[in-house]
């Protein structure tokens, strides 16, 4: 049975309730073949529930979803044959070698003996594991385990790949190398559906859906989301007294928002020149030393925080 043409993933008015609790609330998304699609949101936002539905593991309460052309509610077995799945736990067997793990997952995914040798060698080459093929998996670093888990997930050449927090717990260099592999898979035609809590990784996605309270509260490319929010001007501020600075600056005319980011504050202002002068004047009058005050472009973390704050205000009104 062959999947139909169209979006790699299509979600239409999808809702999932558990009693009175609505975990997924009327979500609609189309994901194109070959797209790297990011799924972001805080814990309890509905991301994991949506992914379980898309993987054919959970039936929706209402609405529809198709993956690789198959209906997740009516054709769940076909869905599972056409997807790869990788979680932050990697699902590997530490007491098997790299080769043995690949062989095991080849059997699980039903890769035919005629195809297995070529797929096995492809996975080793793609993941850079050829020299480590006889190594015990339990002795590999987190980054190498991550590569092996990705390779096992694509052994059966699935058109759609779900990656659930795939870079959690690995070092920054391994994360960067892993994203290089994701881009290679996308270029080869695989659709990548990825959840991540690293805001810098959201920048790597072609498009992003931000979920909150079971709803999609923003959808678009990183550039579109930054533009649509009308960020105006953003300042990065570091001072001798961070929290007093935040209290002093909030609510002043021309200062739209103040939020903690790392060791400093991100301040949204109407006008860059006037805003910088006002910030400096307010803090110097209070005897607070300024270490850094500079204009910066908005990051996906700024978008994330702003959208969630806006969503929270809507829910409390």
Summarize the structure.
The chain has 317 residues and is α/β, with parallel strands linked by helices.
Can you put this structure into words, describing what you see?
- With 317 residues, this protein is α/β, with parallel strands linked by helices.
- It has 2 domains: 9-225, P-loop containing nucleotide triphosphate hydrolases (Rossmann fold, 3-Layer(aba) Sandwich), CATH 3.40.50.300; 232-297, Alpha-Beta Plaits (2-Layer Sandwich).
- It has 11 helices and 14 strands.
- A 6-stranded mixed sheet has the order 6-7-8-3-9-10, sandwiched between helices.
CATH overall fold name of the largest domain: Rossmann fold
Strand line-up of the largest beta sheet: 6-7-8-3-9-10
The shape, in one word, is globular
Task: Tell me the Rg in angstroms.
Answer: 23 Å
User: Which CATH class of the largest domain?
Assistant: Alpha Beta
Question: How many strand segments?
Answer: 14
- Given as residue ranges, the uncertain stretches (5+ residues, pLDDT < 50) are none
CATH homologous superfamily assignment of the largest domain: P-loop containing nucleotide triphosphate hydrolases
Q: In angstroms, what separates the terminal alpha carbons? A: 50 Å
Helix content: 25-40%
Q: Classify the beta-strand content into a percent band.
A: 25-35%
Order of helices and strands: EEEHEEHEHHHEHEHEEHEHEEHEH
Reported CATH architecture of the largest domain: 3-Layer(aba) Sandwich
Q: Compute the number of structural domains.
A: 2
Largest sheet descriptor? 6 strands, mixed
What is the number of helical segments per DSSP (H or I, 4+ residues)? 11
């Amino acid at each position: 049975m062959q999947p139909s043409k169209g979006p790699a993933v299509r979600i239409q008015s999808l809702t999932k309730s558990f009693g009175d609790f609505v975990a997924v609330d009327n979500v609609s998304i189309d994901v194109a073949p070959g797209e790297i699609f990011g799924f972001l949101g805080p814990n309890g936002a509905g991301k994991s529930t949506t992914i379980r539905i898309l993987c054919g593991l959970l039936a929706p309460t209402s609405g529809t979803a198709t993956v690789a052309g198959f209906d997740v509610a009516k054709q769940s077995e076909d869905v599972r044959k056409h997807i790869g799945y990788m979680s932050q736990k990697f699902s590997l067997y530490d007491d098997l070698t790299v080769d043995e793990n690949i062989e095991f997952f080849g059997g699980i995914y039903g890769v035919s003996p005629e195809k297995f040798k070529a797929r096995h060698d492809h996975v080793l080459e793609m993941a850079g594991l050829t020299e480590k093929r006889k190594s015990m998996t339990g002795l590999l670093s987190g980054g190498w385990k991550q590569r092996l888990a990705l390779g096992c997930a694509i052994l059966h050449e699935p058109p759609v790949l779900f990656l659930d927090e795939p870079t959690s717990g690995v070092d920054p260099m391994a994360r960067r190398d892993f994203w290089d592999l994701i881009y290679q898979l996308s270029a080869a035609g695989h659709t990548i559906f990825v959840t991540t809590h690293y805001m810098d990784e959201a920048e790597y996605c072609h498009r992003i859906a931000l979920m909150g309270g079971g709803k999609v509260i923003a959808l678009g490319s990183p550039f579109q989301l930054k533009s649509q929010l009308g960020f105006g001007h953003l300042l990065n501020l570091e001072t001798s007294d961070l929290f007093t600075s935040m209290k002093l600056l909030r609510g002043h005319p021309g200062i739209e928002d103040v939020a903690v980011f790392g060791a400093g504050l991100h301040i949204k202002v109407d006008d860059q020149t006037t805003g910088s002068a006002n910030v400096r004047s307010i803090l110097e009058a209070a005897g607070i030393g300024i270490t850094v005050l500079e204009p910066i472009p908005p990051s996906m973390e700024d978008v994330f925080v702003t959208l969630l704050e806006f969503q929270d205000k809507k829910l409390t009104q």
